[in-house]
């Protein structure tokens, strides 16, 4: 029997069953959830998938072992829902955010499942989640159908997995989404989540990531990237796909413990490191797939100054950070258009995945990224990442290219 999730307690995501740790009683049990027949996803056959392993502490020496295990479990659970929705997204579940960028039921469902897993497995005190979504759009008139879709998909994913004996009500769904309203900051612990990083890639059927990080006293100490469409071994063509290769990569990093990659569907984790290239001529670079997300003209100028011969590898989402961390390329460049403010959830997980793999991530002036200021990053112009050998020449080329671009703009 399942506990029905709703707004039974102030600030509570869920009311747990008797096996959970929190010290308050569950509501009366109701029958376990089953998908309603009218769901637009009802015709999809149920897919068998292995049950997620319970969270347990890893080898000694990692002070965040329990948190890392919970984070990996959380993003893997969310990735299942996202993978299901991506196959149907062209025909169902799409709405527009206030900023007109596309968003799907998977955005909300992913955030709910990550929050649920973290609360169940590691939250023993105040729970703080800095996340992209809130429930405002879902509380508006006309959003009833998409809210029902989200409720059904979340509950079905929980049932299919079997780790949690819990079911959500619609009001519980809204409350769970709003658990992501934390502002973060320089003190305490804060989880940082992008439930679907790379929404346009997700809608195209291309690359996206579920990106989760942990801030402890303003520092990123842990990061995981679930990349359901990224080849497990390497990116070996310009589109970021690899025919015949196993697809679905999970990157994880903890401060002082290095970076690992494993199959999203279960395999022994392998240590990875950034490439050791020291000649820019032999380097390749990653950038955003969408020109609206990063100034391709500027990155092209930087590559020319460096003498890079290879064309850019354009991939959506923080999957670029994962690919860079395992040496698929040598440089990552991101230069948003003027007026855009970077959000911490777009870089927190990816940055530690790269730095723990031996790389460097800075802004365009060479400053470390500061995730302690709240929901936004205050930085100089853009974000760059590479290995230690290439960083000096990369910084020089970046600053020269930006100066030339600014001079040209001033003449207009």
How many strands, which pairing sense, and closed or not: the largest β-sheet? Answer: 7 strands, mixed
Helix percentage: 25-40%
Radius of gyration: 21 Å
**In percent terms, what proportion of residues is strand?**
15-25%
pLDDT < 50 stretches: 4-51, 53-59, 237-243
CATH architectural name of the largest domain? 2-Layer Sandwich
The rounded distance between the terminal residues' Cα atoms is: 68 Å
Strand order of the main beta sheet, please? Answer: 4-6-7-8-9-10-11
Approximate shape: globular
**How many runs of DSSP E, i.e. beta strands?**
16
List the total number of helices: 9
How many domain modules? 2
Q: Can you say what the CATH homologous superfamily of the largest domain is?
A: Fructose-1,6-Bisphosphatase, subunit A, domain 1
Structure class: alpha/beta
CATH class of the largest domain: Alpha Beta
Provide the succession of SSEs.
EHEEHEHEHEHEEEEEEHEHEHEEH
- Here the CATH topology of the largest domain equals Fructose-1,6-Bisphosphatase, Chain A, domain 1
Mean of all residue-level pLDDT scores: 82
EC number: 3.1.3.7
Signal peptide: 1-20
Pfam family, one: Inositol_P
Organism: Sorghum bicolor (Sorghum)
Descriptive notes:
With 412 residues, this protein is an alpha/beta fold. Helices cover 28% and strands 19% of the residues. It contains 9 helices and 16 strands. It has helices at residues 65-86, 105-121, 144-161, 170-177, 199-204, 296-306, 319-325, 348-355, 391-410; strands at 3-5, 94-96, 102-104, 129-131, 166-168, 189-197, 209-216, 219-231, 247-254, 259-263, 270-272, 285-287, 313-314, 331-334, 360-363, 383-386. It has a 7-stranded mixed beta sheet, with helices on both faces. Helix 1 packs antiparallel against helix 2, helix 2 (105-121) crosses helix 3 (144-161) and helix 7 runs parallel beside helix 8 (348-355). Its cofactor is Mg(2+).
């Amino acid at each position: 029997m399942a506990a029905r999730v709703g707004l039974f307690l102030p600030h509570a995501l869920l009311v747990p069953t008797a096996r959970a740790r929190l010290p308050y009683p569950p509501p009366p049990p109701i029958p376990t959830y089953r998908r309603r027949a009218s769901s637009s996803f009802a015709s999809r056959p149920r897919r068998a998938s292995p049950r997620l392993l319970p969270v347990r502490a890893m080898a000694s020496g990692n002070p965040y072992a329990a948190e890392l295990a919970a984070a990996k479990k959380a993003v893997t659970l969310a990735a299942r829902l996202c993978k299901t929705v991506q196959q149907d997204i062209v025909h169902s579940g799409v709405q527009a955010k206030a900023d007109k960028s596309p968003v799907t039921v998977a955005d909300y469902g992913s955030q709910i499942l990550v929050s649920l897993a973290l609360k169940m497995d590691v939250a023993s005190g105040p729970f703080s989640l800095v996340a992209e979504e809130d429930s405002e759009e879902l509380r508006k008139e006309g959003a009833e159908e998409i809210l029902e879709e989200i409720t059904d998909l979340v509950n079905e994913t929980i049932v299919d997995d079997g780790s949690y004996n819990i079911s959500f009500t619609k009001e519980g769904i809204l409350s769970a989404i709003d658990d992501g309203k934390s502002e973060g900051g320089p003190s305490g612990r804060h989880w940082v989540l992008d439930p679907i990083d790379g929404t346009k890639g997700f809608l195209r059927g291309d690359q996206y990531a579920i990106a989760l990080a942990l801030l402890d006293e303003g520092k990123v100490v842990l990061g995981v990237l679930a990349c359901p469409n990224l080849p497990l071994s390497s990116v070996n063509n310009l589109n970021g796909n690899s025919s015949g290769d196993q697809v679905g990569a999970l990157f994880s990093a903890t401060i002082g413990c290095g970076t690992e990659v494993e199959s999203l569907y279960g395999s022994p984790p392998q240590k990875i490191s950034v490439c050791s290239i020291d000649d820019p001529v032999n380097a390749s670079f990653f950038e955003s797939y969408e020109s609206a997300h990063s100034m391709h003209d500027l990155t092209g100028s930087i590559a020319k100054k460096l003498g890079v011969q290879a064309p850019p590898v354009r991939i959506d989402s923080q999957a670029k950070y994962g690919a860079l961390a395992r040496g698929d390329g040598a440089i990552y460049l991101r230069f948003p258009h003027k007026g855009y403010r970077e959000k911490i959830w777009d870089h927190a997980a990816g940055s530690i995945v790269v730095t723990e793999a031996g790389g460097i991530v800075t802004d365009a002036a060479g400053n470390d990224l500061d995730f302690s200021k709240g929901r936004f990053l205050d930085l100089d112009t853009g974000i760059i990442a590479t290995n230690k050998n290439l960083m000096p020449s990369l910084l020089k080329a970046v600053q020269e290219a930006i100066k030339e671009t600014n001079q040209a703009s001033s003449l207009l």
